[in-house]
Design a protein that fits this description.
Largest sheet: 2 strands, antiparallel
Number of strands: 2
Helix content: over 70%
Radius of gyration: 25 Å
Distance between the termini: 32 Å
Structural class: mainly alpha
Strand content: under 5%
Shape: rod-shaped
Number of helices: 2
Order of helices and strands: HHEE
Strand order of the largest sheet: 1-2
């Protein structure tokens, strides 16, 4: 059986990294959009410019999907951290009191 280990802090850190990456991603997309707008909205016209514009529109759709995925990860990782923290706290409390979701402990021959 595979073992999976993670800490809430690691999940929070990963979520923060995704948020930082998302901000950098947005900045790069803005730069690219300005560059393309300068090309197509400038002196370049004709079939080649139209074809480039259509291709860029497809790229923009893909960019939106990537951005949505990054934003989702940035949001979900801290939520997972909170869930792990709640579960860990609950298990620790149960261990201290000798009870669990399965009922009281019968350790000690009771």
């Amino acid at each position: 059986m595979a073992e999976f280990r993670v800490t809430p802090e690691a999940l929070e850190h990963a979520g923060a990294q995704f948020s930082t990456s998302l901000a950098a991603f947005d900045e790069k997309v803005q730069v690219a959009n300005r560059a393309v707008a300068g090309l197509i909205g400038g002196d370049w016209s004709g079939r080649a410019a139209d074809g480039y514009g259509q291709g860029w529109a497809e790229v923009v759709e893909g960019i939106a999907e990537v951005r949505q995925a990054l934003a989702g990860m940035a949001a979900l990782l801290p939520q997972a951290a909170a869930l792990y923290r709640t579960t860990d706290d609950s298990v620790a409390r149960d261990a201290e009191t000798g009870s669990s979701a399965f009922g009281p402990s019968t350790a000690g021959g009771e």
